[in-house]
Design goal:
Elements: H1 6-22, E1 24-29, H2 35-47, E2 54-56, H3 61-68, E3 80-85, H4 98-103, E4 105-107, H5 111-119, H6 125-133, H7 139-150, H8 156-162, H9 166-174, H10 179-183, H11 187-201, H12 205-212, H13 219-238, H14 256-272, H15 274-287, H16 289-292, H17 307-322, H18 326-337, H19 342-346, H20 348-368, H21 379-407, H22 415-446, H23 460-469, E5 475-480, H24 485-495, E6 500-508, H25 515-521, E7 531-533, E8 542-544, E9 547-549, H26 552-564, E10 573-578, H27 579-584, H28 587-593, E11 597-604, H29 606-612, H30 616-636, E12 641-646, E13 651-652, E14 659-660, E15 669-672, E16 681-685, E17 691-692, E18 697-701, E19 706-707, E20 716-717, H31 723-726, E21 727-735, E22 745-756, E23 759-768, E24 783-789, E25 797-802, E26 807-809, E27 812-816, E28 822-829, E29 834-836, E30 839-841, E31 848-850, E32 858-860, H32 887-899, E33 901-903, H33 904-911, H34 914-922, H35 924-928, E34 935-940, E35 943-948
Helix pairs in contact: 1-5, 8-11, 11-13, 12-13, 13-14, 13-15, 14-15, 17-18, 17-20, 17-22, 18-20, 20-21, 20-22, 21-22, 23-26, 29-30
């Protein structure tokens, strides 16, 4: 073949691609169909018409080995094609070519596959299969057969269609473009188009009759039938079983090239014409009801061609939760939440349900696989079990309860079933937590309540923090109230990076697990392993030297006396700060405050305060985000050693928590003067805990029940002896070098959108700020963390509900730089109904990111529940006035703000004409977005009346 033929062109394109990508290619040609083509290829290489050398086996291995000597010796082998006719994967292993075969890439091309790939779309599928079934002789005869078919004359419309892309034809018969329809003017033209679709996609007469019946097709009928064909092909090949419907069974025999074309076109239709796709899919479903009624989730693959499929899987996942088949529910939910789904994008309530199902299934699955602590004998073994297994259950439980609070609302289609499943999960978790607590109580009574010294909270400062202060490094010591161990596991990944060493270990909090004990014992107050209680009764701090440690400044003083005042190189300072100060101060102010300071002690009560105020689940993510932000801020001013720890953990409470009456008790412990033996309780003396200064005994529940204190409805408790309350994190982060200098500046862009699903909505994206011409640009971050807040209004809680296309972690969005718009659904809750602006900002302080405050105002729901000392005074909003370019419109809303209402005659007076009043009415909704109050419109005998609502 001196001139490359049509079929050979397809073959050669694939060969060239593999040679360039793989280097050495071993072509196994079992039937020797390609011998003449390869011989011509060798000649072309020698003439310089082919870029890679070709070595062919023609009966002599010796000749072949000699021909191969110049090749395959370099570190990066050059492209080389080795043709082995008559050989398979097995026979090649018995030849001298085995070494090259192992080093190279195996290439095979069945002759019938090549024919189908080369001629599909040019010859109808039935003719192709008839030719292949009659037996193939060689490449040349196949070329002759193809040319005989192509030589037949075409009419003008057939030639016109041949020059069009299939996507353009999809637009023409299913979209709004009418150009193609204008060319199909009679039944003959329609038949030509139908034949064209048959050649390219395999849509045959049998399917047309099944879907449309025997009546003649119209242009619109053909479009609907073609959409059905594309959808049915995708559905059939996504099934894990043969289709039940007889009309669909022949589709399983469709050739691979036809299937690929159908898949490409149905994806194009979904993406380019989503509304048309959804409408046509509903029609197709009605024809496939007999098939779809027999669907089970196990039958389906990764695509949901029809909404019926998505609905079936969702219902099965909900039932799996109710029947405690958590692994099934987890697998289905992961596939739905971790990849894009056409139907979920169109129905956000289902997306929210899948998110809930995933977290519920995760919790249930982890409870089922967590095992028992009963087999452990020592406190050390119990700590190892909890830090490796138990804490993961508690993390899943907290996340589930957070999602339940955010997402489980009556508007969800499966609300009742999901609520039932969620309540059942609460009881399962409570049984697990009670069993864990009882097993741990047995270990404590058998071995000891006080662990070895290296596992004690009281030795943490001496063993971990103090050695760090004895070098020239700057150290930050975070004392975080109620920072549970599982919370620290969430931050590990956030802290890890180049030049950073992160370690997390567990220790036991002292008993009782309350702030007055845990916070103060994190300072150096130990004397020979014992601590001295201040006062005559209760826990009011610890004595050290001439003073008592019971407040933040006294803890800082004790640390200063221990670690910095005794350094031989000279006195160095210890600085105490709050988490809010570290996060809110400017970098300059923070740097000045910590100048000449070697130990920065950061106190945080936010998690504990939120829990005690019954708003913990709504705000835990926010405070974890703040801890990370504080770390970044301190790192940016030169601090390179960090220790994060806690005074105690906590238990979450709900309707499954038992309350037990007991006189003179706290929620989770009792301090008694004499030893007591009580049912379902354990007792330990203060002396056994190595407390001095007082005599007495502590009593704890063996389970997670609480003592009745007359304060019902608490959702957060600590003080007891459960592992959730006692295991605290010791999270250390060490940086070998200073934080990088941000070289690239970024801009956040935001577009407010109308609310949906009772949620506010905004689109967000991040891009590099423009760089002046001639200025060097630097490689920047691939992703930027973004968060939402209401400026100067910490009393308003922002909750991100959903953000397709971005990962949401601790209420932060991870947004790709220069990616597309990310749609964010969120709600705002405060102490009163009002309207506020929103700030989109970079909370970490790692990159140089310019925040943005859109002009639009968003609704705040006055449904925030919690203990609030005093109502927050509303700021006086005046900056909204600057958002109006038209002075007369600004005056209208000023009038509304001051007087509460305005009539059409008054509008006419301010705006100047009836035409301007009509224009104001048309643009009213856009104007309303820019003001911090709502306005309703009333109809009166004098026209419209605009009334301010709040």
């Amino acid at each position: 073949m001196s001139q490359l033929s049509s079929i050979a062109t397809v073959l050669e394109a694939e060969l060239k691609r593999e040679l360039r990508q793989r280097g050495i290619v071993i072509w196994l040609d079992k039937d020797g169909y390609y011998n003449s083509y390869v011989d011509e290829l060798i000649a072309r290489y020698h003439r310089g018409d082919f870029f890679a050398p070709v070595i062919a086996f023609r009966g002599s291995y010796l000749e072949m080995v000699l021909a191969l000597e110049p090749y395959g010796n370099g570190l990066d082998p050059e492209p080389l094609l080795i043709h082995m006719p008559g050989h398979t994967e097995e026979t090649i292993r018995k030849t001298p070519i085995l070494e090259l075969y192992r080093a190279g890439y195996r290439f095979r091309k069945a002759f019938d596959t090549l024919i189908r790939e080369a001629v599909t779309g040019r010859i109808n599928p039935a003719s192709i299969e008839n030719y292949l079934n009659n037996g193939i002789t060689d490449l040349q005869s196949a070329e002759v057969w193809l040319q005989n078919h192509l030589s037949q004359p075409q009419d003008g419309l057939a030639a016109y269609l041949t020059n069009l892309s299939l996507e353009w034809i999809v637009d023409g018969i299913l979209g709004e473009d009418k150009v193609l329809q204008s060319r199909i003017s009679d039944p003959t033209a329609l038949n030509t188009l139908t034949e064209h679709l048959y050649r390219h996609t395999g849509m045959n007469t049998a399917f047309v009759c099944f879907f449309h019946g025997d009546t003649p097709l119209s242009f619109l009928d053909l479009g609907e039938t073609f959409a059905a064909w594309l959808m049915c092909v995708e559905y059939v090949y996504d099934l894990n079983r043969p289709p039940h419907l007889e009309a669909l069974q022949p589709l399983t025999q469709l050739s691979l090239p036809l299937r690929k074309t159908c898949k490409q076109l149905v994806e194009y239709l979904r993406k380019r014409h989503p509304d048309i796709y959804a409408a046509k899919a509903a029609i197709v479903e009605s024809h496939l009801e007999q098939e779809l009624n027999q669907i089970s989730p196990e039958d389906l693959g990764q695509f949901e061609t029809f909404q019926w499929e998505e609905t079936a899987i969702l219902q099965s996942a909900v039932q799996a939760l109710l029947s405690e088949e958590f692994q099934k529910a987890l697998q289905w939910s992961q596939s739905r939440t971790e990849s894009a789904s056409f139907w979920l994008e169109r129905d956000r309530t289902r997306r929210l349900e899948w998110s809930l199902i995933k977290d519920a299934a995760t919790l249930g699955y982890m409870i089922q696989g967590s095992g028992r602590l009963k087999s452990k004998q020592t406190l050390r073994e119990a700590l190892e079990y909890y830090t490796q297994t138990g804490c993961e259950v508690d993390k899943a439980h907290r996340r589930f309860e957070q999602q339940r609070l955010k997402l489980l609302e009556p508007t969800l289609p499966h609300f009742a079933q999901l609520l039932e499943a969620a309540d059942k999960l609460r009881f399962q978790y409570r049984n697990w937590a009670d069993t864990l607590a009882q097993d741990f109580a047995l270990i404590c009574t058998t071995e000891s309540f006080l662990p070895d010294a290296e596992l004690q909270q009281r030795t943490l400062y001496e063993q971990v923090v103090h050695p760090l202060t004895q070098s020239n490094k700057k150290v930050a010591y975070f004392l975080i109230d109620a920072f549970r161990y599982e919370m620290a596991t969430e931050l590990i990944q956030e802290f890890e990076g180049a030049g950073t060493t992160v370690t997390l270990k567990g220790r036991y909090a002292e008993l009782p697990s309350i702030t007055a004990v845990g916070m103060n014992i994190l300072a150096p107050v130990t004397q020979n392993g014992r601590v001295v209680l201040a006062g005559n009764d209760g826990f009011k701090g610890f004595k050290t030297g001439e003073y008592t440690v019971r407040k933040p400044d006294e803890r800082v003083r004790a640390m200063s006396e221990k670690s910095t005042d005794n350094i031989s190189a000279g006195r160095r300072r210890v600085r105490g700060l709050t988490l809010a100060e570290v996060c809110n101060w400017s970098t300059t102010s923070l740097k000045q405050s910590c100048a000449n300071t070697n130990l920065v002690v950061v106190h945080s009560r936010e998690i504990d305060d939120a829990g005690e105020a019954n708003v913990g689940l709504a705000t835990f993510e926010t405070w974890l985000q703040q801890i990370k932000s504080a770390w970044n801020h301190l790192k940016s001013i030169g601090i390179n050693e960090f220790v994060f720890t806690a005074d105690h953990g906590f238990l979450l409470q709900d309707q499954t928590t038992q309350e037990k009456p007991y006189r003179d008790s706290n929620r989770r412990y009792i301090l008694a003067k004499e030893p007591r033996s009580e049912e379902e309780m354990v007792t330990v003396s203060l002396n056994a805990l190595k407390y001095e200064g007082q005599e007495g005994y502590l009593l704890f529940r063996k389970d997670t029940a609480v003592f009745s204190t007359g304060i019902p409805g608490a959702s957060f408790v600590h003080g007891g002896n459960s592992l959730q309350e006692r295991v605290i994190p010791v999270l250390t982060v060490s940086h070998r070098h200073q934080s990088h200098l941000a070289m690239v500046k970024y801009l956040i862009e935001a577009k407010p959108e109308p609310s949906i699903l009772d949620c506010s909505r905004i689109r967000v994206r991040v891009k590099p700020a423009p760089v002046a011409q001639g200025v060097l640009s630097f490689v920047g971050a691939r992703e930027i963390n973004v968060a939402l807040r209401v400026p100067e209004r910490p009393d308003i809680q922002v909750t991100i509900k959903d953000a397709p296309g971005a990962e949401v972690k601790n209420q932060q969005l991870q947004i790709a730089v220069e990616g597309g718009w990310v749609e964010v659904l969120f709600d705002l809750k405060g102490q009163r109904d009002e309207r506020v602006r929103l700030e989109i900002y970079h909370p970490d302080g790692i990159e140089d990111v310019e925040s943005v405050v859109p002009q639009t105002y968003f609704n705040v729901s006055g449904s925030f529940q919690g203990e609030v000392a005093a109502a927050t005074e509303l700021p006086k909003n005046t900056d909204w006035q600057d958002s109006f370019a038209d002075e007369t419109v600004r005056r209208v809303f000023l009038h509304l703000q001051q007087h509460g209402s305005i009539t059409e005659p008054e509008l006419n007076q301010i705006l100047g004409s009836a035409r301007m009043v009509r224009r104001f009415s048309l643009d009213f909704e856009e104007h309303l977005k820019k003001v911090p109050f709502s306005v309703r419109i009333e109809t009166t005998s004098n026209g419209k009346r605009y009334v301010k609502q709040n």
